[in-house]
Design a protein that fits this description.
The structure holds 2 protein chains of 2 kinds. Chain A is α+β, with helices and mostly antiparallel strands. Chain A contains 6 helices and 5 strands. The longest helix of chain A is centred in the N-terminal third of the chain and has 21 residues, at about 1-20. Chain B has helices at about 15-20, 20-35, 75-85, 110-115, 130-135, 140-150, 150-160, 175-185, 205-210, 215-225, 240-255, 285-295, 325-335, 335-340, 375-380, 415-420, 440-455, 460-475, 485-500, 500-505, 510-530, 555-560, 585-590; strands spanning about 5-10, 40-45, 60, 65, 190-195, 230-235, 270-280, 320, 350-360, 365-370, 390-395, 400-405, 430-435, 540-545, 565, 575, 595. Chain B starts with 5 loop residues before the first strand and ends in a 12-residue tail after the last strand. The chains are: A alpha+beta, B alpha/beta. The interface of A and B includes residues 34, 49, 55 and 95 of A.
């Protein structure tokens, strides 16, 4: 009897710490109040922009072989990091193939809604950050980095 | 830390899951990690996207690119080409029937272009297992409004003014039902969500539960405030495991987030729900039968009145609505009665979800405004009939509905027009049939279903469906008598008049509507003993067309009963004495050299059977 009695108590003791890490997410969800809904909605703004494919502006990083060789990946990373830092939630970032002007890569096109797109060339991480801040967020295109404004003529 | 730039939305509705979409999702996640894109690219499983025909489906946002019928092997290339190099892969895109150019964007595809999404607004867009995503897309905004700014009467007034009618089939005005529940003084009051979708070919409720369970919950909580209920039940059939799982998760999250339980959203309003699992019987969809099932009794209907709004669950006032109805409610509260009433027809407001199945190119789930013409659904959204065949009939409203012929293609769909035409809205199942369908066979199929599903309480239904089935079966076997049609019509009327619940009252619809529009087909079966569509096996005979047969042996190999004779490059022959009429030879033939012979009558011998 005593051994039997002892066993479960040992088991309990041993069981407790073992069971604790199992419930690893004891992060108790706070009950929401009416005003919390808006907070969650704001947090999800970036997700909503991407999923509904509707943004205030669209930045296309050209990712052809030439672009990647010239460092387009770093441009992309720098851009996304800067967007996270600045909490930009209404801008769409996209990729495209080679734009045809391989010696001026890395390139990116910034198209703000209802404005002609601007093509930027010879980019660096520093330049794309400045483009995001000045052009996309500030509304001032950076003429010094730009190749041209507007679309190519399509025949 | 990076801001994600692309979301890969993998459809995880039952249709796509059965095509392997979870494996696709896993492959995508692995590939994305391998390419070190996990900070930039998010992979999400969403609810049913609707275009079930083309599963597994992947939507790439923000590009709006629609990929379909994906295979695991496609994934590495897809990630490299599209996500790294920005070149969407044409080969994996949707190509419309009889066309060769792929359509890259989802919004340009005919199937999606003509739909108007209200109830299904979150389909293929949010992760149904994450309440924060639902909230992110205006979720629980209507609830906040209803709890803080509106009185129960105001909620009921808005629902009444919107003209919303029950989406389960009968089309009873929802506002009226809620008002009746509100008037009752007995407590506690209950709410029920009817998710016992029993019609063959209907899957809209399942899809809503899978794609947007929180919309259903939000509708129910709003309804609870309007009616004064404190407890709700969601009845889901056990055959819907994914819907059950997603709803369980939704309820758990709802409780964790304070959207269910005591003091919802910090107000003084309490409401909680519980899932009740059904074993799936057609009759349990009837409200009093469903209530009996929740109470733990056999699902069998009882006489009404008293209606459930007066005496429902445990004899307490109970408001019971269909899944789709509940999911519509938050949209009406959020956007107003006027907006909802501006959609649809005079008597039927808003949109309705239909499941489009059968002989149609684009099988799937569609949501369109009431009043849309059948033709637009079948040929516009549905993409027409496959293999260049001709449209023959469309079966609407499940077993209680009816078959409508070509002449009704321009019918604007609403509750009244369908009933008038001999079908019914039902839950919104649409089965399209081509000219290879025999209407006697269709009537037989539905009668067989109903005779199985009749609970047996009313003699008229229990015996009526059985006898009607026997008569139609005899007709399909070539044993029909000219007097049969009159007997069928008499039984149909008796079944309709003398049965207590909607199952029996509508059980004759498949017979009546096929008799109404396809009487000649019944007559051909009875008088000429032939089946024009070549379906009823006793009335057809397969034979080889000598001028078309190339002697390729394909049919011979396909025949399970070894009854085809012939050698290579010689015209084959079917031994009629051994033929079991399975049609395998016809399917195997690539030269259309085998026909189901049906131009002349075949005498069926009683003794032989």
């Amino acid at each position: 009897m005593p051994t039997q009695k002892g066993k479960p108590s040992v088991g309990k003791k041993a069981g407790r710490p073992a069971a604790a890490p199992k419930e690893k997410t004891p992060k108790v969800q706070k009950k929401l109040l009416i005003q919390d809904l808006q907070r969650i909605r704001d947090k999800a703004r970036a997700v909503a922009t991407i999923r509904s494919s509707e943004g205030r502006a669209k930045i296309t990083v050209h990712m052809g072989t030439c672009g990647i060789a010239a460092g387009a990946r770093d441009i992309m990373s720098a851009l996304l990091e800067e967007m996270k830092k600045k909490k930009v939630t209404d801008v769409i970032v996209s990729t495209s193939g080679c734009a045809g002007l391989c010696n001026r890569e890395p390139m990116a096109t910034v198209a703000i809604k209802n404005q002609p797109p601007v093509k930027y060339v010879d980019l660096t991480a520093e330049k794309i950050r400045k483009i995001l801040n000045d052009h996309v967020l500030g509304g001032q295109p950076i003429v010094a980095y730009a190749l041209a404004v507007g679309h190519e003529t399509l025949y | 830390m990076k801001q994600p730039r692309t979301h890969l939305l993998v459809c995880a509705g039952t249709g796509c899951v059965s095509c392997g979409s979870f494996q696709i999702k896993e492959a995508l996640e692995n590939e994305v990690r391998k390419r070190k894109l996990q900070d930039e690219v998010v992979v999400v499983a969403t609810g049913c996207n609707g275009f079930c025909e083309k599963g597994p489906i992947l939507l790439v946002q923000p590009d709006g690119i629609f990929y379909q019928q994906l295979k695991i092997e496609d994934i590495p290339r897809l990630v490299e080409e599209h996500l790294i190099k920005g070149r969407p892969i044409k080969k994996l895109m949707y190509v419309p029937p009889a066309k060769t150019t792929p359509i890259p964007k989802m919004k340009d595809i005919e199937f999606f272009k003509h739909q108007r999404l209200i109830v299904l607004r979150n389909r293929g867009r949010i992760d149904p297992e994450n309440v924060e995503e639902y909230i992110g897309f205006d979720g629980y905004e209507a609830l906040a409004k209803a709890l803080t700014e509106m009185s129960p009467e105001e909620i009921i007034d808005i629902i009444t003014a919107s003209g919303l009618r029950g989406r389960g089939g009968a089309g009873f005005p929802t506002g009226k039902k809620w008002a009746a529940g509100r008037r009752e003084t007995a407590t506690p009051k209950y709410l029920i969500c009817n998710g016992d979708e029993g019609d063959p070919g209907a899957f809209m409720d399942r899809s809503i539960l899978e794609a947007d369970p929180h919309a259903v919950l939000e509708g129910m909580i709003i309804g609870a405030k309007a009616i004064g209920a404190e407890k709700g039940y969601i009845y889901i059939r056990k055959e819907y495991p994914l819907a059950l799982k997603r709803m369980e998760i939704a309820i758990r999250q709802g409780r964790d987030y304070g959207l269910l339980g005591k003091g919802i959203l910090g107000t003084s309003f309490d409401f909680d729900v519980e899932i009740s699992q059904g074993a799936g019987a057609f009759v349990s969809g009837e409200e009093t039968a469903l209530i009996a099932a929740i109470e733990g009794r056999i699902a069998s209907p009882r006489q009404r009145p008293p209606y459930p709004a007066q005496q429902g669950l445990w004899n307490k006032p109970t408001v019971i609505n269909n899944v789709e109805t509940w999911a519509t409610v938050p949209n009406i509260i959020r956007r107003g009665a006027k907006w909802f009433a501006s959609l649809g027809t005079e008597t039927s407001k808003g949109t309705k979800i239909f499941s489009l199945v059968g002989k149609i190119n684009n099988t799937g789930l569609v949501e369109v405004p009431m009043g849309t013409k059948l033709r637009d659904i079948i040929y516009g959204i549905g993409g027409g009939i496959p293999d260049g065949r001709k449209f023959k009939a469309i079966q609407i409203g499940g077993p209680s509905g009816g078959c409508l012929p070509t002449s009704k293609l321009d019918l604007p769909i609403d509750y009244e027009s369908l009933t008038e035409a001999g079908a019914m809205m039902g839950s919104g199942g649409m089965i399209v049939m081509d000219d290879k369908t025999c209407m006697v066979d269709v009537a037989k199929y539905f009668l067989n279903f109903l005779r199985d599903e009749s609970c047996g309480k009313c003699v008229s239904c229990r015996e009526g469906t059985q006898r009607m089935w026997e008569i139609v079966r005899n007709i399909s076997e070539g044993k029909g008598k000219p007097s049969d049609l009159a007997v069928l019509e008499e039984l149909a009327v008796a079944c309709k008049d003398a049965s207590m619940c909607a199952l029996g009252q509508t059980a004759a619809n498949p017979v009546l509507s096929t008799l109404r529009y396809f009487r000649h087909e019944f007559e051909t079966h009875i008088l000429e003993k032939r089946c024009p569509a070549g379906v009823c096996v006793n009335l057809i005979r397969y034979f080889v067309l000598p001028d078309k047969c190339t002697g390729c042996l394909a049919c011979k190999r396909a025949c399970p009963n070894d009854c085809i004779r012939g050698t290579l490059r010689e015209v084959h022959l079917i031994d009629q004495s051994k033929c079991i009429k399975c049609g395998a030879c016809q399917e195997a033939c690539r030269f259309e050299a085998i026909e189901a012979h049906r131009d002349t009558a075949i005498v069926v011998q009683e003794e032989a059977r």
